[in-house]
Amino acid sequence: MTNIHPVAPELQVSQWLNTLRSITLADLRGRVVVLHAFQMLCPGCVSHGLPQAAAIHETFPAADVAVIGIHSVFEHHSAMTPVALEAFLYEYHIRFPVAVDRPSTTGNIPHTMEAFNMRGTPTLILLDRQGRIRLNHFGRMDDLRVGATIGQLVSEAAIDPNSNQYQEQPAAGRVGCDNEECAISDNMGQASA
Amino acid sequence: MTNIHPVAPELQVSQWLNTLRSITLADLRGRVVVLHAFQMLCPGCVSHGLPQAAAIHETFPAADVAVIGIHSVFEHHSAMTPVALEAFLYEYHIRFPVAVDRPSTTGNIPHTMEAFNMRGTPTLILLDRQGRIRLNHFGRMDDLRVGATIGQLVSEAAIDPNSNQYQEQPAAGRVGCDNEECAISDNMGQASA
Amino acid sequence: MTNIHPVAPELQVSQWLNTLRSITLADLRGRVVVLHAFQMLCPGCVSHGLPQAAAIHETFPAADVAVIGIHSVFEHHSAMTPVALEAFLYEYHIRFPVAVDRPSTTGNIPHTMEAFNMRGTPTLILLDRQGRIRLNHFGRMDDLRVGATIGQLVSEAAIDPNSNQYQEQPAAGRVGCDNEECAISDNMGQASA
Amino acid sequence: MTNIHPVAPELQVSQWLNTLRSITLADLRGRVVVLHAFQMLCPGCVSHGLPQAAAIHETFPAADVAVIGIHSVFEHHSAMTPVALEAFLYEYHIRFPVAVDRPSTTGNIPHTMEAFNMRGTPTLILLDRQGRIRLNHFGRMDDLRVGATIGQLVSEAAIDPNSNQYQEQPAAGRVGCDNEECAISDNMGQASA
Asked: A182: which chain D residues are within 8 Å (Cβ-Cβ)?
């Protein structure tokens, strides 16, 4: 039964911003981890996902909850460069550490995005104190529900991760960006697949 | 140590709406209880508090979380009558049970409001599965924080209530209504005091 | 051609609030007049219509634009009494004059509401400087469009009212209240009809 | 008296997007012109200015009102390139023509921005049917007021531009970006000055 909540794979990062040193998920064992995967030109990330991640970062004590942004670019690669991301983070006052997801050499989907089976941006991933994936949500999720899940994970004594979660309903099979999210298209050159 | 989180006093109710039978807090032992005290002419209750209570009611399974509205009128008594409340609940599509807080015969503050030491409306009170008061918040509280507290209470095995809560900061000493809340004035005829 | 924009009928008022003396539309000739018909328990009026009317009142010079609220109760008469309205206006900080639409003795629809052929609340009516009806809109209307129409009426030299208006699309035939508006039902006892 | 409202200088454009051919202000004589100057990484432009410009574009008939975006980059030049802008416009569904403000060879402020004496982004500029500048506003401006000014300009018979405008209050002397706007700093290398 230990496989019900798999341990998250490590982040694959080509560059870190907003932090002086690299961060690994292994370093964060013992804390709840909030991973927010975004693209700087994804409207739903800018209007909803990143403000929510920032609010989580402000609301919960750092000793309990770590917030990490992951810039997982799967489209418009020439527009969303690290230098553009740096300006974006500065102008939007994003304070928490942000990892640039390592680009694939053979396709559009960067490595961390693929390793976590993300379907697009924004994606919210929650890890428990033992590093197990307890939520992997594509698209908008309201604060009440996000808060409830984090509150539950925070209160766990880092022992039993097999408690019940709020069920994820699969999102509609959209492709491209709308106001809420940017979905990976089916034929977007996951050349390795 | 058992007094750290006192057991909530019973509701004092002159009339119930949105339910066929009376409800006591004792009936709800084993579930987390959300009490939302409001006035139908309190702007902050209408714009924020009641929609939040309704969202809690929709988000959490009824087996885990019970939501109860309390109409605690401490001003404009001739305007906020039960018949007016009934029309209000109908037009605003409030579905959860609502108690009319029993009016005082000697002052403006109704009995449940006084028993819980509420400072005005909206007030959000959270009880754990054992009926102990774990949060008593006057004014606006954001969804992320409310969700986190409920999520924590839901995950408790109905055993140990003495865990840490997010700290309440005392609100400013306003009197009367602004967009966010209606505060009881100091000289508002709590004749029994 | 003078009938293209009919002159508005006079208001029929049983009581005025927020003003020391009665107001007639005839008194307001030479100014653009904004009539906002609402019910205090109409959710769309509270969340959108009244804040918009208040913003108009603050934005435009009183010498150019007069804003008048009309409390046109066609349902829940026992809840939306003048005493309740007075408390409501106080708590919601409504500053502009409000007329209580004169109740019908034979049906549910008050007299001004019927004289203007209103279909429910909120209704926004704009009169030009000559007292002619230039807009009669049931339901929500965005600020950009409302501003444009008022701006045009303000700039008219009180001479030629026959200029083009933005077209009104008929709203859907709903009955009862939703978040946006409260519609008069077809059989709501317009006994005089 | 003809100098009260000066005729706008021509746009200085290095590249057009969302249009097959170049546009000049001279081409637009006879129509009201809305110029919205923005930067793609200016938070206030993304959250407020561009949605407002898009709403103007949708609300008013093209025969009366032309909407033009101007990408006036005065900071983070390496991040806000034309290729990045193109991706941005695509993802945010901006449909109206957008000009890339011609960069200065000697400083940070592009030529159109300097010619119009803009103080930062977003800036909203309104021209009357004769091409005269009737509003030049830095920062947020609410829809009611913008609508009123456009409505007035639309109703003018393209004859007398010297009517009264709503007064502009000078904005606070901020430098850099906040949620609302990005202000040009005083020492930002206007080398030509």
From this structure: 91
User: Do B80 and C92 count as a contact with CB atoms less than 8 A apart?
Assistant: no
- Write the ipTM: 0.84
Q: What is the CATH number of domain A13-156?
A: 3.40.30.10
Q: For B64-104, how does the pLDDT look when each residue is reduced to its tens digit (9 = 90+)?
A: 999 999 999 999 999 999 999 999 999 999 999 999 999 99
Virtual torsion, Cα C133, C137, C143, C146, nearest 10 deg: -20
A contacts of D182 (beta carbons < 8 Å): 91
Tokens describing residue C78: 């026992």
Listed in sequence order, the residues at least 6 apart from D31 whose beta carbon sits closer than 8 Å to its beta carbon are D63, D64, D65, D66, D129
- All structural domains of chain B with their residue ranges: 13-156
Q: Does B150 touch chain A (CB under 8 A)?
A: yes
Q: Give the number of other Cβ atoms within 10 Å of residue B186's Cβ.
A: 8
Does D42 touch chain A if contact means CB atoms closer than 8 Å?
Answer: yes
Question: Cα(D112)–Cα(B4) distance, rounded to whole angstroms?
Answer: 66
Of C47, C83, C177, which is closest to B79 when you measure between CB atoms?
Answer: C83
Q: What DSSP state is assigned to residue C38?
A: E
Cα C144 from chain centre? 18
Residue D71 pairs in a beta bridge with D38, D100
pLDDT digits (tens, 9 = 90+) for D88-131: 999 999 999 999 999 999 999 999 999 999 999 999 999 999 99
Q: Does A46 touch chain D (CB under 8 A)?
A: yes
Contact between residue D141 and residue D51 where contact means Cβ atoms under 8 Å apart: no
